[in-house]
Design a protein that fits this description.
homodimer; 348 residues; alpha/beta; 6-stranded parallel sheet; 6-stranded mixed sheet; 12 strands; DNA-binding
Chain lengths: 348, 348
DNA sequence: TGCGTGCGCTAAAGCGCTTGAGTGGAAAGA
DNA sequence: TCTTTCCACTCAAGCGCTTTAGCGCACGCA
């Protein structure tokens, strides 16, 4: 019979001090591994704290200048893009793994757009809520680095290119250009000359990087007919663009999609038009996930370890919070996993 | 040239008090809409606060007993299940929508299992981090309600059945049993008599509800041959179970999957075995998402509005935080969207 | 013996906010 | 006119923790 119990009271340092027979300051010193108490007292205090199940009140800590022990993460994407994207949950789970070890909280927020995202940062900063933030989806002309700089909020940009204009920000990035080059290599070797790149949101920095890389690689090899079409990452646009380019007079023989969702939708659209994959057209997805092995044919994909990506980002942020210098770290270039959706171009 | 600026200082109530020529208490009264100041002073204080860009420090608020202005959300699922599930992001985005309006933060954590989840709650409680939590994936013999009760942490259980043993917890749930009944109705009308249910994790409460409902409905109609097989929700198990049941001597004519991912994998597995959908076997997914329209044939699915589900849950939690009574609210029964993966059973 | 030194500890202030107990003055009642 | 009441506002304590200053003590040294 669960009568309405009063909520248990949280033990405070005062309780510990009383039971250990020392002052609160001594307790503070002891528990924070600061000099000022003897080892024997330290041990005793530690034991009492443990026994009482004491945990520091983040509120009190934050108030006395120690920071909020929390980092922020804002996802600013149109709501309908949120659905079937495996990347973010994986990323977040990697982030958590690192943060949890240090008992750092993750304050999460989804916002409709970057402007709102900035407002969130301002609010978090003003409210003392976070000690640092993880920024995703960096853009061309991104207002966020300037803002974070202005607020003095430690931050690591995930997926941005190195940015020497903001020496205070760490960056964790994958070399999209290198991956694109390798991809074009592989497709070229299979005989593909007409490649269309169904890209993601136009103002995302990595979209631009990929588009430029494709153009550069094509130029280097004398491939005239490459094209990048930007989309909103949705299955609907992926399918629509696929239909459009395949119905052109000289359809491409290879399609590169900036995410798995569009690639899957694209394959379906291609089949609908009578194109068989990979006989008539090869398909590569930029993000590997279970999805790529859930359709027939299995999709060839550029695979990277998103969980590890998250771990790396979180590690950089903790380093920053510890007072370390901002760094730019590159994670491994995505690897092309060749499955059944890519093949040699059909001989004429 | 971004020289290292000192981080801007946050204005405090003291600053406001000085500029408005009143005491800090007056400022507090004014800004919190408490009696004790005249309307004219209140206005002046408000203006100054606005002008200074003041925001209350959550740390200080929390410390003086006001709560942390944050709610917690733990996702305890094995890491590999995290990938392609549209449900949670949608749910979270609905939750956010409501929380953001009240400037409540969402502390998010992924944990490996329920035990760790409990540890997280304890820590959050001890550290004064959250005012309440949203609990997902309620289980049979769930330790969490007892714990939350013990801690006196307001909570709403998402997807649980009404639970009269924990009058302090709110519950937001969908009537799985009703949906299952409607589904069996529909399949029965199409002539299906042998139905296999590829269910989710065995100890999830809604898994059990669905299994029981299926059995009850089958019993009511004299369908002898129904079966539920529990899985881990992964595409791999979905495919494996599909193969196993279709290779049995008298294979089912309809398959009901507890999520979209398994359904898609199941269709692929069925095709691999030479079963065509829906001619040889009908397929229904319990969760609707873009995924269901990305495969051929398009999957019939039980659809519900997960974003709205999130909104409802968050609304209940805020009500609880406002001191309201715990409630049990039912969201609309999932609707069956009939697409191309269900059809009449083939005549012998 | 006296003095400086360092160690182990305590006292107290302060972080930014809330809140209950005053306080002074004007308006209302006797 | 004096008291009462009420209102607008101030004071000060307190939330749980960190941190600086300082205190007493034993020790080493001259």
């Amino acid at each position: 019979m669960a009568a309405k119990r009063p909520a248990a009271r949280r033990p405070t340092m005062k309780d510990i001090a009383r039971r250990a027979g020392v002052s609160e300051s001594a307790v503070s010193f002891a528990l924070n591994d600061r000099p000022g108490v003897s080892e024997i007292t330290r041990d005793r205090v530690r034991r009492v704290a443990e026994q009482l199940g004491w945990r520091p009140s983040t509120a009190a800590r934050a108030l006395s200048g120690e920071g909020a022990a929390t980092v922020g993460f804002v996802l600013a994407r149109p709501a309908h893009t949120l659905g079937v994207d495996s990347f973010f949950l994986q990323l977040v789970s990697g982030i958590q793994e690192v943060l949890a070890r240090r008992h750092l909280g993750l304050l999460f927020q989804v916002a409709p757009d970057v402007e709102d995202e900035c407002a969130v940062y301002r609010r978090w900063w003003a409210e003392h809520r976070v000690d640092g933030v993880l920024v995703v989806d960096p853009r061309t002309d991104d207002p966020r680095p300037d803002l974070l700089d202005e607020l003095g909020l430690p931050a690591v940009v995930i997926g941005g290119a190195p940015d020497e204009r903001h020496p205070g920000l760490s960056t964790v990035w994958a070399d999209d250009a290198g991956a694109m080059a390798a991809l074009v290599d592989a497709l070229h070797a299979l005989g593909h000359r007409r490649i269309v790149h169904i890209a993601g949101l136009p103002d995302l920095a990595h979209t631009e990087r990929r588009i430029r890389a494709l153009r550069a690689e094509a130029g280097r090899r004398g491939l005239g007919e490459v094209e990048s079409v930007t989309t909103d990452y949705s299955d609907a646009e992926g399918a629509a663009v696929t239909r459009r380019v395949l119905e052109a007079p000289a359809p491409p023989t290879a399609l590169v999609y900036d995410n798995d969702v569009m690639a899957v939708a694209g394959v379906a659209a291609a089949s609908g038009l009578g194109f068989s994959v990979p006989a008539d057209v090869s398909v590569v997805a930029w993000e590997d996930s279970a999805l790529c092995r859930m359709v027939k044919p299995w999709l060839s994909a550029l695979s990277r370890d998103s969980v590890e990506f998250g771990r790396t980002a979180a590690t950089e942020l903790t380093a920053l919070l510890d007072g370390g210098p901002a760094r730019t770290v590159r994670v491994p270039v995505p690897r092309l996993i060749e499955r059944d959706s890519t093949g040699p171009v059909r001989p004429l």
